[in-house]
Amino acid sequence: MKKVITYGTFDLLHYGHINLLKRAKEYGEYLIVALSTDEFNAIKGKKSYSSYDERKKLLEAIRYVDLVIPEVNWDQKISDILEFKVDTFVMGNDWEGKFDFLKDYCKVIYLDRTPEISTTKIKNDLSLS
Ligand code: C2G
Q1: In this predicted model, what pLDDT tens digit does every residue of 98-113 receive, in sequence order?
Q2: What global pTM score does this model have?
Q3: The one catalytic residue among 22, 46, 107, 123
Q4: Most buried of the four, 22, 38, 50, 86, by CB within 10 Å?
Q5: Could you say which of 22, 25, 44, 85 is catalytic?
């Protein structure tokens, strides 16, 4: 069984996230999402609207997602890939090249971001309405 992994905050879940998860799942039969914890978001300089548990529940309801694990730091990717025997690592191409060091452990794929939508845009548009 081919396993795929991806990482992110997935706050204010939107169709750009779903589009990413749908395409990531096409690389295997089992998709793991490493979801940034609230503590790691603080390290990333992100304040998510929804808590880790709320964001986890939403991701677990998505048909493409098979497992959600916590992302607690920048450095867990290699151990995650080894622990879960991951074949392919997938991220949006705003991260193009940033995770190429993982090519020693699995395939690394960067997928085009979905244009015109982002958590930041949603927050900004709502604040103006
Ligand atoms: N994404 C996308 N299209 C958008 C918005 C987001 O394809 N319009 C993708 C991003 O490229 C990323 C995933 O959706 O692959 C999750 O996005 P974020 O929650 O913003 O992830 P980020 O905060 O970049 O966390 O260790 C990696 C980090 O945890 C990535």
Answers
A1: 999 999 999 999 999 9
A2: 0.97
A3: 46
A4: 86
A5: 44
